[in-house]
Design brief:
Elements: H1 2-13, H2 17-62, H3 69-80, H4 85-133, H5 149-173, E1 181-183, H6 194-197, H7 217-222, H8 230-233, E2 248-249, E3 266-271, E4 281-283, E5 286-292, E6 297-303, E7 309-314, E8 337-338, E9 342-346, E10 351-356, E11 361-366, E12 381-383, E13 385-392, E14 395-401, E15 408-414, E16 424-426, E17 433-437, E18 441-446, E19 452-457, E20 468-470, E21 473-477, E22 483-487, E23 493-497, E24 508-509, E25 513-517, E26 522-527, E27 533-538, E28 548-550, E29 553-557, E30 562-566, E31 578-579, E32 589-591, E33 594-598, E34 602-607
Parallel strand pairs: 2-28
Antiparallel strand pairs: 1-19, 3-34, 4-5, 5-6, 6-7, 8-9, 9-10, 10-11, 12-13, 13-14, 14-15, 16-17, 17-18, 18-19, 20-21, 21-22, 22-23, 24-25, 25-26, 26-27, 28-29, 29-30, 30-31, 32-33, 33-34
C-alpha cells in the first residue's frame, strides 16, 4: 500500500498541467465519495455526542437533587428545627450527592463540547469538499470500473478515527488523572538573582487602596527575618495538620481513650459562641481558632491549661462583603496560623489579619471576595513567610507575605480551578518548598524565591485535600481523580490508585504507609513504596477531618463525632470509635501530650490523668 501511494505521488509530480487536470477530473468521483462517507460518519458521531450532552444538561438542570420534593422537605424541616443534628446530617449528605452529580455533569459537558466541536468541524470540512467536487464529477464510461482505492482509504481512515474517539471518550468525558510532570533541577540559593526571585506582579491586592509595592529580594533580606527553627516548629501545632501541615505529631504521647460523659481524661471543655469549621492551632500555652457569621469575624485566644478565653478580637470586613457560603464551610472555614509571635487569620470575605500574641492588631489585608461555589476554605501556613492560597473563580494565586509587615514578598499566578486545599511545606530538611494542590495540578514552589520546582498534572474536580509528604514522596488525592505518589527528587510518578478517594480529608503519609478517608466512610491504607492498597475499612461515618499520626497511633475523627484510633500497620485493627457527643469537622491538634478537639459547639482538651 505504501509503495503504491509513493508511486502515485511520483506519477502526479511528473505530469504536465493538462494531464494533471485530467487526472484529478477522473478521480473527482472517488474523492467526492470519500468526503461524503467521512461527512456521514462525522454527522453520526456529532449527533451521538450532542444527544449525550443534552442528557447531561437534563440531569444537571431538571433533575437537580436539591430541587426534589424529598430534599426540599428535609430542608424545610431544618428551617423549623435548626438545632436538630440528625436533620443537619441528612442535609449534608444530600448536599454531597448534589455536588457529585453537578460536578460529574459539568465535567462531562466541558469535555463533550470539545468532542462535538471536532465532529462538527470535520462534518463542515467534508461538506465543503463535496461542494467543490460535485461539479467536476464526470460520467463513467461504459465498461469502466471506478478505482475505489481512495474511497477505501477514506473509509478506513474515518473508521480508525471513530474507533479511537470511542475508546478515548470515557477518559475524555469522565475526569481522569492525566499526568504531566515537570521537574526542575533544584536551584542553589547563591545562583538565584533578584530578577529570578521576583517576576512582574500586581502591586495591589485591594483595588480600593493605593498600590502596595511588592517586596523585592533585597527588601525581603533587609527585613532580617530570623531563620526558621524546625525544632521549635516540631514541638508546636502552628497550623492546620500540625508541623509543616503534614498531619504528623512529633514526640507526642496523647491519650488513646477518654469519655466525654464521665469526664475521664477530659482536662477542660470550652463553649465557642460563634460557628467555625477551622481547626485549633497551638503554640506554647495558647490555642487559637476563628469563628464568624455575617456580622462578625472573630479570632479567639484560649489558655491551653485552663480553657479560658484570654482574648477575642474582631476583624473588620473591609469591603462589606457578604459572600455566598455553604453550610459545610461558613465564614470561618480556614484555620489560623501562628509563628509564636503572631497569629494570622483569614475569612470567607477575603480579609486577612495579623495580631500579636497578646491580641494587638498588627496589620490587615483585603483580598476581595474569593469567589467559588461553597465559600473560601484554604488555611494559612507560616514558614519564613506567611503563605496564602487563593485559588478561586477570580483566578489562582499563591502569596508569600512578610509576617512582620504584611508586605507581599512574592506572588505567583496559577492556571488552576477553584480549590479548598491548603498549602503545606515539603522537604524542609533539604530545600523547603511550599506545595499546593488544585485542579489540575500539584505544584511546589521554592519558599524563598517562589520558583516552581515541581509540577504534576494529576488532579480534577473540586480539590479540597492538601498534599502529604514522607520518604521523599509527595502524595495527592481527590475524588474523581486518583491518589498519586511522585518522587520529589526525580519528579516521576511512582504509583497511582483510584479506589475510595477522599473529597475533603487530606491523605496522611508516613515512612511506610499512606492513609486516606473517603466521604463514604472508607478508610484505606497503602504501601508508600509500591502503592498496593493493603487494607480498607468501611464505616457508617463521613470524614471531613484529616488523619493524624501521634504517639504511634492514627487518630481520625468523623462528622458523626467519633474518634477512631488505630495502629498504622499492614492489617487493620477494628476500633468502635470514641463518641464526642457532637459533630466533628475539624482536624485535632496534638501538643504537650494533649489533644485539642473542636466539635460543632465546643473546644475540648484531652490529657491522660
Amino acid at each position: 500500500m505504501m509503495s503504491s501511494a509513493a508511486g502515485l505521488r511520483e506519477e502526479i509530480a511528473t505530469m504536465d498541467e493538462h494531464k494533471r487536470d485530467h487526472f484529478w477530473a477522473s478521480k473527482a468521483p472517488l474523492l467526492y465519495a470519500s468526503a461524503r462517507t467521512t461527512a456521514f460518519i462525522a454527522g453520526i458521531f456529532s449527533a451521538i455526542v450532542a444527544a449525550m450532552l443534552l442528557i447531561g444538561f437534563f440531569q444537571r438542570i431538571v433533575l437537580n437533587p436539591l430541587s426534589l420534593p424529598a430534599t426540599e422537605s428535609v430542608i424545610s424541616e431544618l428551617k423549623n428545627n435548626p438545632a436538630n443534628e440528625t436533620i443537619k446530617s441528612s442535609v449534608r449528605e444530600l448536599d454531597l450527592l448534589a455536588r457529585k452529580a453537578f460536578f460529574t455533569s459539568l465535567s462531562f459537558t466541558d469535555r463533550g463540547a470539545l468532542l462535538l466541536a471536532a465532529g462538527i468541524g470535520t462534518l463542515l470540512l467534508m461538506l465543503h469538499l463535496m461542494k467543490e467536487l460535485r461539479p467536476a464529477v464526470p460520467s463513467a464510461g461504459p465498461g469502466t470500473a471506478p478505482d475505489r482505492s481512495l474511497v477505501n482509504w477514506a473509509i478506513a481512515g474515518a473508521g480508525v478515527v471513530i474507533v479511537i474517539a470511542a475508546l478515548a471518550a470515557p477518559r475524555i468525558i469522565v475526569p481522569s488523572s492525566k499526568k504531566t510532570v515537570l521537574a526542575e533541577k533544584p536551584i542553589p540559593e547563591a545562583a538565584v538573582t533578584p530578577a529570578q526571585k521576583n517576576e512582574p506582579v500586581k502591586t495591589a491586592v485591594d483595588q480600593n487602596k493605593p498600590a502596595e509595592p511588592v517586596a523585592s529580594a533585597q527588601t525581603a533580606a533587609s527585613a532580617a527575618l530570623p531563620p526558621v527553627d524546625n525544632r521549635e516548629i516540631m514541638k508546636q501545632w502552628p497550623n492546620l495538620r500540625g508541623p509543616y501541615g503534614l498531619g504528623i505529631a512529633y514526640g507526642q504521647k496523647p491519650p488513646t481513650t477518654w469519655d466525654v460523659a464521665s469526664g475521664k481524661n477530659i482536662k477542660w471543655k470550652t463553649a465557642i459562641p460563634l460557628a467555625g469549621f477551622n481547626s485549633p492551632v497551638v503554640w506554647g500555652s495558647r490555642v487559637f481558632l476563628t469563628a464568624a457569621d455575617e456580622k462578625s469575624l472573630d479570632v479567639f485566644c484560649i489558655d491551653a491549661d485552663t480553657g479560658k478565653i484570654v482574648w477575642r478580637k474582631s476583624v473588620r470586613n473591609a469591603k462589606g462583603i457578604s459572600p455566598k457560603v455553604s453550610e459545610d464551610t461558613g465564614f470561618a472555614a480556614s484555620s489560623a496560623a501562628t509563628d509564636g509571635k503572631h497569629v494570622f487569620a483569614v475569612f470567607a470575605t477575603g480579609d486577612l489579619a495579623c495580631f500579636d500574641i497578646d491580641g494587638k492588631l498588627r496589620w490587615t489585608k483585603a483580598f476581595g471576595e474569593p469567589g467559588n461555589n461553597y465559600g473560601y476554605a484554604s488555611s494559612l501556613i507560616v514558614y519564613k513567610y506567611l503563605f496564602v492560597q487563593m485559588d478561586t473563580d477570580n483566578g489562582g494565586t499563591v502569596y508569600a507575605i512578610n509576617p512582620e509587615t504584611g508586605a507581599i514578598v512574592w506572588q505567583k499566578p496559577r492556571k488552576v480551578e477553584p480549590s479548598w486545599a491548603s498549602p503545606v511545606i515539603v522537604n524542609p530538611a533539604v530545600r523547603p518548598l511550599v506545595a499546593l494542590a488544585a485542579n489540575p495540578r500539584v505544584v511546589a514552589y521554592d519558599v524563598t524565591s517562589g520558583a516552581a520546582v515541581f509540577s504534576a498534572e494529576c488532579l480534577s474536580g473540586e480539590v479540597a485535600p492538601s498534599p502529604a509528604f514522607a520518604r521523599g514522596t509527595i502524595v495527592v488525592a481527590n475524588e474523581y481523580a486518583s491518589i498519586t505518589a511522585f518522587s520529589l527528587t526525580s519528579g516521576k510518578e511512582i504509583w497511582k490508585g483510584e479506589d475510595d478517594l477522599p473529597n475533603t480529608a487530606s491523605p496522611l503519609a508516613t515512612e511506610t504507609h499512606v492513609f486516606t478517608a473517603s466521604p463514604s466512610g472508607v478508610v484505606s491504607c497503602y504501601d508508600i513504596v509500591s502503592g498496593k492498597r493493603l487494607w480498607f475499612h468501611e464505616t457508617d461515618d463521613t470524614f471531613y477531618s484529616s488523619p493524624v499520626i501521634a504517639g504511634g497511633n492514627i487518630y481520625l475523627a468523623s462528622t458523626k463525632g467519633k474518634m477512631f484510633v488505630f495502629t498504622p500497620a499492614n492489617v487493620f485493627t477494628p476500633n468502635a470509635g470514641i463518641p464526642m457527643g457532637e459533630a466533628v469537622f475539624a482536624t485535632p491538634a496534638f501538643v504537650n501530650n494533649r489533644i485539642y478537639i473542636r466539635t460543632s459547639a465546643h473546644l475540648y482538651c484531652m490529657e491522660a490523668q
